[in-house]
Amino acid sequence: MISRKQVLKMLASFPLVGGFVGTGLMKKGSELERPVHSRRDYFTELGVRTLINGRGTLTTLTGSLMDPAVMEAMDYASRKFVSLNELNEKVGERIAEMLNCEDAHVTAGAASAITLATAAAVTGNDREKIRAIPNIPGPQREVIMPKTHRIYEQQLTVCGVKLVEVEGP
């Protein structure tokens, strides 16, 4: 059985793929062929220096290095077309099942997860409220936030909420 930590660690690496899959594509029937390892050094080409990460999994340091099993799954998925809505729904169901929780949703990272969770909290299943974000009718919703976490302000206020800062319990 895979632990919750292992699942979350694998999922944290998904947003990094997009920038590196566009080279060497050649059509062959319904599949795509591409080299397993790129000969290009994209970071050097862009003038971006690589770092030694001594801090752990941080979005600002491109998240984390990907496990070979994750890379294999991404390579497989990059060679087929599917409905993203259906894939997102089915993956969420599978993750929720693995974590033994009510529901799960894959996001592009922590910032988008905060936005989606806030939006869900202030709208529930009300489609009119969902469509009205950030101008939800009625009194403005408030979100309590520790003063030290103000770096996430934008992820919350985009949902039309008012922040209430606190400095302790």
Summarize the structure.
The protein is 38% helix and 9% strand. The protein folds into two domains: 96 residues, no CATH class; 57 residues, no CATH class. A hairpin with a 2-residue loop joins strand 1 and strand 2.
List key phrases describing it:
mainly alpha; 2 domains; two-stranded parallel ribbon; 9% strand
Written description of the protein model:
The strands form 2 sheets. The protein has a two-stranded antiparallel sheet with strand order 1-2. The chain has helices spanning about 5-10, 40-45, 70-75, 85-100, 110-125, 125-130, 155, and strands spanning about 25-30, 30-35, 140-145, 160-165. It has 2 domains: about 5-100, no CATH class; about 110-165, no CATH class. Helix 7 (about 155) links the parallel strand 3 (about 140-145) and strand 4 (about 160-165). Residues about 15-35 have low confidence and may be disordered. The protein has about 170 residues and is mainly alpha-helical. The protein has 7 helices and 4 strands. The two termini are about 35 Å apart. About 40% of the residues lie in helices and about 10% in strands.
Distance, first to last CA:
37 Å
Largest sheet: 2 strands, antiparallel
Number of strands: 4
Strand content bin = 5-15%
Average pLDDT, to the nearest integer? 82
Helix content: 25-40%
Number of helices: 7
- Computed Rg: 20 Å
Would you identify the regions where 5 or more consecutive residues have pLDDT less than 50? 13-35
Shape, principal axes of CA atoms: extended
Our count of domains comes out at 2
What is the H-and-E element order?
Answer: HEEHHHHHEHE
Structural class by secondary-structure content = mainly alpha
What topology, given as strand order, has the largest sheet? 1-2
